[in-house]
């Protein structure tokens, strides 16, 4: 996206949020210019009166004008600023919300693709760290103000002499060109710094991070890390030394040019006071006025250059944001048929999957069918494609080819949110949120009455074996999960959290339930308890389990054996154990061997 | 720690890093004041000449003085600034390094205690986000500069009239008092904002985080999260509205006071031009000089107030840093006896442990002994205290009471780094680093020749079953672990990473090896393979295993059965299986039940 397009899109978004905003910005610019003009023009009369008539009444009058005008402008500008500050906060939060909303709705595959992940990171960086929008609005406003000020001052100086204006514009052009060249250099040289900074940040971050400290101590990684940090820090230091040298030269040059401009202004206006060679003589008051006009002009022109650079820079930061915002939403993708009733049948037909940018197939044309109420276990080696099946079912991944049918219809034909209601999943890396335990379990489903919800949540907590733990808590199920910001929140062990996640999946009353390594963090007794209650917990729902603990397969009606992305077998435990050459037999035996008493 | 103490400590630290730094700061302040003075005093002569003699040679001479002086100051100040900028980068990095170093060396217990964790977070925040040190140095320098400028300008204005100075000082005092009151109000009102901001940040962060998106989609948490974000964002918005209102009033007041000061300056100096009521008449040149002195004085005084506030604020930010830096180091804690040879015996004697701020004992007076070469398994329910034993052995936690003896000596009597050489541990939540695979495995031990190291690493990789995987890589063992900043790095699955972590522990050639859930992420075949090779891998080392997979106990010489922080049993698998009422029997049976073919 070009800068122009980004700016246009940004303006249109801002307009939508607050249409009056841009008019106010223009108005504010005019008023700020007004203050500058008053302080350029009014003192002329005061000085003229001081040098000339020295009439006390006049002196007091002009003095008063200056003071009152400044107070009025001050009041107005501060009020505007306050108004704008509040508006900026509002805009910034709206932007954050838009971004958060987009991330929660964008096609999930984008969140696992390095390209889009990087885009997301840069967009988040722009929103959160750089406050790119705030800075952009501020800079656009300042560009506007600078432009209005420059035009007004040009008019003032033009009354003295067009040649004077021309000379000033010329010298200013030099510093603006210098600024532009330096900006270009800066952009290029910063590219060198970015990877160094990233690595430096990574290693310092490692050292700052608590969870790495055990391994750092036991494996004596301290010095290795410090060496990296020192190495990158030396590189950064050297970069800065080089950069500030160039920057010093540039700033020195611009400084000399600015002083030259001031000298020209003082010189030319001074000559006009003492001689009429270049036009009619002017008074000391006019001298003050033109000199301060010229100086304000220089300041504004330099400022304009800087602000334009900032606008360009902020547009650059905002580009990833704009690009991310225009990615397609999950829910919008295909499907309008509302999903109704229960999962009666589930069928994979020749389904293949590979990651977008990869050519390695994770699943290669797999086909199988599950009937209502069946309990299926998926087993296989690490990397066989087990979790991919879960993600495909949850519409987190889309098949590269083939079709998944539920109740005889391609799952992508169903409307997204009604489809999501038919299934519940406990992922291997499930997450709970800093909501109350009650809220975590009932999730976004809130169709029932509060008291019924509570009753159901409490029943489920009892079933997964957390009743006593919750009863200990002062606030019961209303206790916040985690201590992120509430010291009264509850920190749970891996096993306890896993139980809450299982309760959450069961609460959903989905007719298809998927459990990926649901007991990996549980001790043998808790594990046995969960398995014992599984059939009771899951009831007549269709269920898919994934577990490295082969014993869990014994409970299941059928076992889907995956081997390198294809189906090696799909049968009952009993039948599979008869095939002594089969993968399943091998897996089961290898674990069972040491349990023979 | 008081602000004064923090400032003192900060100055002493800075002095250590670069003694010349502060002298340069003072010198810089004097020079910057010089520039202000030149621009206050020199124009007087120019204006006087313009109004009076209008001698061209004089005019050019004064004009030239002004320009040359400014160019000289510009050059000098820019050079100084450049020098200081580079120095600031240096100081900032040193601070980062000091912080990183401290975190890596501080007593581990501090990193699990919420109080110290919070302190660490605030210290890191000060270093990284606020650049507190940079800002502090900058502000201290500006305070210095302001002070020197103010004194010089007072001297200049004193030549006009002490009364004039008095009036200015009075009006300035009013705005400084207002500033101070407002700062106090601001500090208080910000306290209200902090918890809101923290929660807002937490929920926005959740929405931004990729790893939460699966659960957000499946459990329809989207709206719940958005509601939280909107709720907190409304609170922030309201807060800002209220705050900017007060701020507007304050700034308006200060603005009026500033205008009043300018009016007084212009008025008083103007009167001195036209009348001799308050002393001898002065010329227009002097008028210019005194007015610009008064205005510079006002600016500097306001600036001084602001900078002092910033210094206080930055000291506040730096306090957690200073406090964290003064925590005791792990290595310094007791012990100077170098650990030599192998672990011959290991004995826990009446060891108890509870977390510093808790009264619940995790371990209650446990005693047991392990002999050289024994393989011990620790089993028990979640929360029984298994991992705590590991952390105590690694000196990550210190017993609340009781003693751990290795080779007959309290482990805290040994010198830290030599002690850490005697053991290797694979933690449940082990971490690998963005170093090469080779570097990850050999860790900080680098006593051997490079080729021998490589050979050993490659042998170990073969033993843990990663030989083929590594052989596929272009750079082999020199491949970077992870893709954090190198697209050529390798992302490993949980199982593969765990194998690398096991290789790392074995590389260490420690005589005591501890494995906490070492195969939890491995599939049944990989698990069986690791177990099969364990005795071969571990050799004659003393070994402690923790695993929820009871089958791993079968390999062990003895099993330590923990139940609620006390030792329920400590015997061989065979003996323990004879006690049908025992915990171990129950645990083993519950898992074995489903493996009976």
Automatic annotation (TrEMBL), chains A, B:
- SMART domains attached to this UniProt entry: AAA (SM00382)
Identify the keywords attached in UniProt to this record, alphabetized.
ATP-binding, Membrane, Nucleotide-binding, Transmembrane, Transmembrane helix
- Spell out the GO cellular component terms annotated for this protein, sorted alphabetically and separated by semicolons: plasma membrane
Membrane topology qualifier: Multi-pass membrane protein
Spans traversing the lipid bilayer: 21-42, 62-80, 150-178
Provide the ABC transmembrane type-1 domain boundaries. 130-313
Q: What molecular function terms (GO) are annotated for this protein?
A: ABC-type oligopeptide transporter activity; ATP binding; ATP hydrolysis activity
Compartment(s) where it occurs, according to its Swiss-Prot or TrEMBL record: Cell membrane
Q: Where is the ABC transporter domain?
A: 346-589
Identify the PANTHER family for this entry.
ATP-BINDING CASSETTE SUB-FAMILY B MEMBER 10, MITOCHONDRIAL, ATP-DEPENDENT PERMEASE MDL1, MITOCHONDRIAL
Its name, as the record gives it, is ABC transporter ATP-binding protein
Which organism does this record belong to?
Anaerocolumna chitinilytica
Its lineage opens with: Bacteria, Bacillati, Bacillota, Clostridia, Lachnospirales
């Amino acid at each position: 996206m070009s800068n122009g397009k980004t700016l246009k899109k940004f303006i249109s978004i801002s307009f939508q949020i607050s249409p009056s905003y841009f008019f106010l910005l223009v108005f504010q610019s005019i008023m700020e210019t007004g203050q500058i003009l008053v302080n350029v023009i009014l003192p002329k009369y005061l000085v003229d009166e001081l040098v000339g008539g020295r009439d006390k009444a006049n002196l007091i009058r002009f003095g008063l004008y200056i003071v009152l005008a400044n107070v009025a402008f001050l009041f107005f500008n501060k009020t505007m600023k306050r108004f704008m500050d509040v508006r900026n906060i509002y805009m910034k939060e709206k932007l954050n919300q838009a971004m958060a909303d987009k991330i929660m709705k964008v096609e999930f595959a984008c969140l696992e693709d390095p390209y889009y992940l990087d885009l997301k990171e840069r967009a988040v960086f722009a929103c959160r760290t750089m406050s790119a929008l705030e800075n952009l609005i501020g800079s656009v406003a300042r560009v506007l103000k600078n432009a209005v000020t420059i035009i007004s001052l040009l008019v003032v100086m033009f009354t003295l002499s067009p040649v004077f204006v021309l000379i000033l514009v010329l010298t200013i052009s030099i510093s603006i060109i210098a600024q532009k060249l330096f900006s270009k250099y800066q952009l290029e040289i910063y590219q060198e710094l970015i990877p160094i900074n990233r690595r430096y940040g990574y290693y310092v971050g490692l050292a700052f991070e608590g969870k790495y400290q055990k391994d750092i101590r036991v494996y004596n990684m301290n010095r290795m890390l410090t060496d990296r940090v020192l190495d990158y820090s030396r590189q950064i230091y050297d970069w800065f030394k080089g950069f500030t040298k160039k920057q010093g030269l540039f700033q020195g040059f611009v400084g000399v040019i600015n002083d030259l401009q001031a000298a020209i202004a003082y010189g030319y206006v001074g000559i006009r006071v003492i001689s009429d060679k270049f036009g009619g003589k002017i008074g000391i008051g006019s001298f003050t006025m033109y000199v301060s006009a010229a100086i304000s002009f220089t300041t504004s022109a330099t400022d304009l250059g800087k602000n334009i650079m900032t606008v360009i820079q902020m547009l650059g930061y905002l580009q990833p944001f704009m690009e991310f915002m225009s990615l397609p939403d999950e829910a919008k993708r295909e499907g309008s048929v509302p999903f109704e009733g229960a999962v009666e049948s589930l069928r994979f037909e020749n389904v293949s999957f590979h990651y977008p940018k990869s050519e390695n197939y994770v699943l290669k044309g797999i086909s199988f069918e599950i009937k209502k109420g069946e309990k299926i276990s998926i087993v296989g080696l690490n990397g066989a494609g087990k979790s991919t099946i879960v993600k495909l079912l949850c519409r987190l991944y889309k098949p590269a080819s083939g079709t998944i049918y539920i109740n005889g219809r391609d799952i992508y034909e169903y409307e997204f949110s009604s489809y999501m209601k038919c299934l519940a999943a406990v992922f291997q890396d499930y997450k709970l949120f800093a909501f109350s335990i009650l809220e975590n379990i009932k999730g976004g489903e809130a169709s029932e009455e509060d008291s019924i919800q509570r009753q159901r949540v409490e029943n489920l907590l009892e079933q997964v074996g957390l009743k006593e733990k919750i009863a200990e808590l002062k606030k019961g199920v209303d206790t916040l999960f985690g201590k992120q910001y509430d010291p009264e929140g509850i920190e749970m062990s891996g096993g306890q959290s896993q139980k809450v996640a299982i309760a959450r999946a069961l609460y959903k009353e989905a007719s298809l339930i998927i459990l990926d390594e649901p007991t990996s963090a549980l001790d043998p007794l808790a594990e046995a308890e969960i398995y014992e209650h599984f059939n009771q917990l899951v009831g007549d729902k269709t269920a898919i389990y994934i577990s490295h603990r082969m014993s869990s397969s014994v409970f299941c009606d059928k076992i889907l054996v995956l081997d390198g992305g294809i189906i090696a077998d799909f049968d009952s435990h009993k039948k599979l154990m008869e095939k002594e050459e089969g993968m399943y037999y091998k897996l089961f035996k290898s674990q069972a061997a040491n349990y023979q008493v």
